[in-house]
Design a protein that fits this description.
Layout (H helix, E strand, L loop, with lengths): L6 E4 L16 H12 L12 E2 L8 E11 L2 E10 L4 E3 L13 E4 L5 E18 L4 E18 L5 E11 L4 E12 L4 E4 L1 H12 L12 H11 L12 H20 L7 H12 L3 H38 L3 H19 L8 H11 L3 H15 L1 H15 L5 H22 L13 H27 L7 H19 L16 H18 L4 E2 L4 E2 L25 H6 L3 E3 L5 E3 L2 H11 L3 E6 L4 H11 L2 H10 L1 E6 L22 H13 L6 E5 L16 H19 L9
Parallel strand pairs: 1-10, 16-17
Antiparallel strand pairs: 1-9, 2-3, 3-4, 4-8, 5-8, 5-9, 6-9, 7-8, 9-10, 10-11, 12-13, 14-15, 16-18
Helix pairs in contact: 3-19, 4-10, 4-11, 5-6, 5-11, 6-9, 6-11, 7-10, 7-12, 8-9, 10-11, 12-13, 13-14, 18-20
Length: 725
């Protein structure tokens, strides 16, 4: 995935205070003059350091950078790429956005410098057909040179930025990569890669602005790290990771069961099982072949999950769940899936894939069985593809998610083939194929359409567009489920539906269930006087945006006296007072001598919304937080840019927005990057209980708060004690 790497160059004046007018037109003479002042030998262009791409595995491109003075206040920065044989780097000026990523240069904002003209490129540039992207592109072979003139108005301030490039050979591409560089034109020195990052970090570490609300105070961090490893109390800290992975498996398993009922898969069960039982020399061999067939299905789909994780990486998968661009793409994709399920077109893989796989299946033996399973996966894609896509997107919030969800999906899909191969008589109990299978697809289409708006909602809420707020989201869902109800009652038809003369008892049951779901969704408009907002139905918690994010209700106002002193003080979920800045919340807690509930959350965090809707809304929990704790909610996906950019202690990279800062803050101190994460601390930043993630039991959460509060009271009395059983 795209990665940011910073660059910086600093322009300083000579210490003599004299100007050599002849040097302005002579870069060599100017370089000699500076060398004389600094008592060091500096050639006209000095290049220091180089960086390659590939993490020590593939390193086909190496970058160097140099700077020279053209006129007084104007410098020429030359960035050069040395490219291995067979590899290419792409031009800055590509005709289509559908191909590779163009090389680009990004300069951080500043009023002390300006760019003169565009970044010129030269070198071994050719426009040729690219086998990877199957299109004509402008790309460099062997060498690429980029030249940018910079005019500075303040020689004491550095100029920072980064370049982004992508490299490919005839078979593969490495992901787009950002490269840091640091330049000091006064001495004509340039650094690139790790050396540049180190110098930038050294400069940033001395910046007084790091102690403002836009930065993170290192002293406070160190204090929390010391106490996080050994909390004062022993309550909390349930490990819900296993439970989360179990739910991911179950989610995938349910998706596999649904896929079995589609017209692309269901008819294949008796055909495939009959093939194994009749084509085998003995019943034992038929059972063995059926089991191998089922195992091959699992291997194919699990391998797909592993490949997706390997390509994108766990960090990128986690970002997929919150960033506006992938969520908007998922919205459009799910709408397309829904239209496909409604029967207006089919999403299929190339027929040549199925033909090749079927040819391999004819070879027989273990290889033949494996390719029979591959043929099933390919030909059933028009039905299973949207379900797989939905499952993978939902599972991307966890590093192991794609692997686990595909294991669940493929297990459910493979189970009937193994069972019916072992017990072929059970085939007689299967319902016959018919129009009911198309109805299953249409119902899935309605569900896909509903979930499409969930992804658009995440993008809207995270980036504060104000388009899809709570009322509109819930209204759309009510309309979708109402339409599904009308369909099940036979009042709406789609292209592949058969005429309905009479509703079967099964269809009546689904129609009534859909009607209840519609009414249940509509109950989300009930106003809760205590919360000063709508009350989201419990089963839908985490799917719509927070009820506080709405069009028509008056936004609850925070205490103006407190807000005047602490700008981040506001109203959060369930009308609770909260701070959205760590330092402000800590200062207020010290002033009031109250314990802190530190809430690492996110705009796109489903389990955060579930906690807020189903646990924080309960009176005993809400009252406890409101009366006894200072709530500090830190949003790890907040997109607001930071005026200053601290360097991460975890990744050694710049933290460019508020979300980056709080995510890094969580990782450094609590060795966790999943949300929600709840930490109870004293005003002196001593952790009172083990941090904990999402756990769906309100009583357990209430006990957790009570336990931390009791620890705080015992600490004030001079002894540490726990809540008595």
């Amino acid at each position: 995935p795209p990665t940011d790497v910073d660059f910086e160059f600093k322009i300083e004046t000579g210490t003599t205070g004299k100007t050599d007018t002849g040097a302005a037109d002579n870069p060599t003479k100017n370089a000699e003059k500076i060398a004389e002042v600094e008592e060091e030998t500096t050639p006209e262009k000095v290049t220091i350091g180089e960086v390659g791409q590939g993490g020590g595995i593939l390193n086909p491109v190496k970058w160097t950078i140099s700077v020279s003075k053209k006129t007084e206040g104007t410098y020429e920065v030359i960035t050069e790429a040395s490219i291995d044989d067979g590899w290419s780097v792409y031009s800055q000026f590509l005709e289509s956005e559908d191909g590779p990523e163009a090389t680009s240069f990004t300069f951080d904002e500043g009023d002390h410098f300006s760019l003169v003209g565009k970044n010129e490129e030269s070198g071994n540039l050719k426009k040729a057909y690219d086998k990877v992207f199957e299109m004509n592109v402008a790309k460099f072979k062997k060498k690429a040179i980029f030249t940018q003139e910079v005019e500075t108005q303040d020689l004491s301030k550095p100029i920072t930025g980064y370049l982004t490039f992508m490299t490919c050979d005839d078979e593969k591409c490495l992901p787009p990569t950002d490269v840091d560089f640091f330049i000091n034109p006064s001495s004509l020195q340039a650094f690139v890669g790790d050396e540049a990052t180190s110098k930038i970090k050294d400069l940033t570490a001395t910046d007084e602005n790091l102690n403002t609300e836009e930065g993170v105070v290192d002293q406070a961090r160190a204090k929390i790290i010391a106490t996080a490893a050994a909390p004062l109390g022993d309550c909390g800290g349930e490990n819900t990771k296993g439970a989360g992975l179990l739910m991911t498996f179950i989610f995938g398993f349910i998706g596999g069961l649904i896929a079995l009922l589609t017209p692309c898969v269901f008819p294949m069960i008796p055909l495939t099982v009959s093939f194994f039982t009749k084509g085998s020399k003995s019943r034992a061999e038929g059972i063995k072949n059926g089991l191998l067939y089922g195992a091959s299905i699992i291997v194919i789909y699990v391998a797909l999950g592993l490949i997706i994780t390997a390509i994108f990486g766990p960090e990128a998968l986690n970002r997929l769940s919150t960033h506006w661009l992938p969520n908007t793409i998922f919205f459009l994709l799910f709408v397309i899936f829904a239209i496909s399920f409604f029967g207006y077109f089919e999403i299929t893989l190339p027929s040549s894939w199925a033909n090749k796989s079927d040819t391999m299946a004819d070879k027989g033996g273990l290889i033949g069985i494996f390719f029979m399973a591959a043929t099933l996966a390919i030909v059933s894609f028009s039905c299973t593809g949207p379900i797989i896509g939905s499952a993978l997107v939902e599972s991307a919030k966890n590093t192991m998610g794609p692997f686990i969800v595909m294991l669940g999906f493929s297990t459910a899909l493979a189970l009937p083939f193994g069972l019916f191969a072992a017990f072929p008589a059970w085939l007689n109990s299967l319902p016959s194929s018919g129009s009911w299978m198309n109805s299953v697809k249409v119902i899935l289409g309605f569900l896909e359409l509903a979930f499409a708006f969930k992804f658009l909602s995440v993008a809207d809420y995270t980036w504060h567009w104000g388009i899809l707020k709570y009322e509109l989201f819930m209204g759309i869902w009510v309309l979708i489920f109402a339409a599904m109800t009308l369909y099940l009652f036979g009042l709406i038809k789609f292209p592949h539906d058969s005429p309905i003369k009479k509703l079967s008892p099964t269809r009546w049951g689904f129609a009534l269930a859909s009607l209840l779901l519609t009414v249940y969704t509509a109950s989300g408009f009930i106003y809760n006087e205590t919360l000063k907002s709508y009350q989201c139905p419990g089963l839908l918690s985490g799917l719509p945006p927070p009820a506080l994010y709405n069009f028509f209700l008056e936004t609850p106002k925070a205490d103006p006296t407190i807000k005047a002193e602490y700008p981040s003080f506001t109203k959060c979920a369930n009308n609770l007072d909260c701070f959205k800045d760590y330092e402000e919340g800590m200062n207020y807690a010290k002033k009031k001598n109250l314990p802190i509930l530190l809430d690492f959350t996110g705009y796109g965090c489903v389990n955060c919304r579930k906690t807020e809707d189903n646990i924080w809304s309960i009176d005993k929990v809400r009252n406890n937080i409101e009366q006894n704790f200072v709530l500090i909610s830190l949003y790890v996906d907040a997109p607001e840019k930071l005026k200053n950019t601290p360097i991460s202690k975890y990744s050694n990279k710049k933290l460019r927005n508020v979300g980056n800062m709080w995510a890094d803050f969580q990782i450094v101190n609590f060795q966790s990057n999943s949300q929600p994460l709840y930490v109870m601390m004293t005003p002196e930043e001593e952790v009172m209980a083990l941090p904990r993630g999402y756990y769906p039991d309100p009583d357990d959460y209430s006990d957790y708060l009570d336990c931390g509060l009791q620890t705080f009271k015992s600490l004030k009395e001079g002894k540490i004690g726990m809540k008595e059983e």
